[in-house]
Design goal:
Blueprint: H1 4-19, H2 22-30, H3 34-54, H4 63-73, H5 92-120, H6 129-153, H7 155-184, H8 186-190, H9 195-214, H10 220-231, H11 235-244, H12 252-282
Helix pairs in contact: 1-6, 1-7, 1-11, 2-5, 3-4, 3-5, 3-9, 4-11, 4-12, 5-6, 5-10, 6-7, 7-12, 9-10, 9-12, 11-12
Length: 283
């Protein structure tokens, strides 16, 4: 079972690599200023964890639920599971570039943020950067490169396989979360409160709002893409880190709650974006 989540992430990253176009991704990078990248750093790595730490002061959450939501908040750059949610008004190349940028910063930002947050609860939690770097290299950059090579050598076949691999990866990840929930047993599940999905919703909406407030862009496509991607936190990485470094199996329900809520938020955003476009065309 420990290999299920990494396998799902691997498949999703290969799928991302198949859809990646180097020149278009570089162009998307160049369209953003250094000021935007700095504000994006805050919106991606700082604001969501701060929101997660504030949630227990708003809702009656347990420590395990806080830990699960916090690990979601510190883990950006999810494999692009947004393709079917945002078919229009969504820049896949910018999204892929954002994911690569976030993955490069993960070994630096996550250890610092987790260490600082743990100190607030008088705990010492240190995630070695080299461990994260190895994990990111094996589970993200390697499959990303494989996907790009496959798309370069066999572009027609890659175009056909890419949506199927995305679907398979998402299904495997969903089944893994359900299996972990079953393994927790009814006692843990009964201890959950109705406030958990509400808190997960606040975290997802807050991640979206962070982009709109901190990274405003004259290009609506940029704002839409980044806001959807920021809500799409890295479920697989959060599961791995919470189990390995926090030893918090009970944090899984919180991760699962976000895994359910986030697609609904992204789908709602996509519907709203598309409605705006339709209204403009009608006008």
């Amino acid at each position: 079972m420990k290999m299920v989540v990494p396998t799902a992430v691997f498949l999703l990253m290969v799928s991302v690599g198949m859809s990646l176009r180097h020149k278009q991704m570089v162009a998307a990078y160049r369209s953003m200023t250094w000021s935007m990248w700095l504000r994006l750093l805050l919106a991606t790595f700082i604001v969501p964890p701060v929101i997660a730490l504030l949630l227990p002061h708003i809702f009656p959450l347990s420590l395990a639920e806080l830990e699960g939501l916090f690990m979601i908040a510190v883990a950006p750059g999810a494999p692009l599971m947004t393709r079917n949610i945002a078919k229009r008004g969504f820049d896949m190349q910018l999204a892929a570039g954002y994911q690569v940028w976030g993955a490069l910063l993960i070994p630096v930002m996550i250890p610092l943020i987790v260490f600082a947050a743990a100190k607030l609860y008088e705990r010492d939690v240190w995630i070695p950067p080299q461990a994260l770097l190895t994990q990111i290299a094996e589970e993200q950059f390697l499959p990303l490169l494989l996907g790009m090579i496959f798309a370069y050598l066999l572009p027609a076949l890659a175009a056909k396989l890419q949506p199927k691999m995305t679907l398979i990866g998402n299904v495997v990840l969903t089944l893994a979360i359900l299996a972990f929930l079953v393994a927790l047993g009814p006692q843990v599940l009964k201890s959950l409160t109705v406030w958990l999905p509400v808190a997960a919703l606040v975290l997802a909406v807050g991640s979206v709002a962070a982009i709109w407030l901190l990274v405003p862009s004259p290009d609506p496509l940029t704002s839409r893409t980044l806001s959807i991607c920021n809500a799409n936190r890295h479920i697989g990485l959060a599961l791995l880190l919470s189990g390995q470094y926090l030893h918090a199996k009970a944090a899984l329900p919180a991760v699962a709650a976000y895994a359910v809520v986030a697609p609904a938020v992204m789908g709602g955003l996509s519907w709203w974006f598309h409605k705006q476009e339709d209204d403009l065309i009608a006008a």
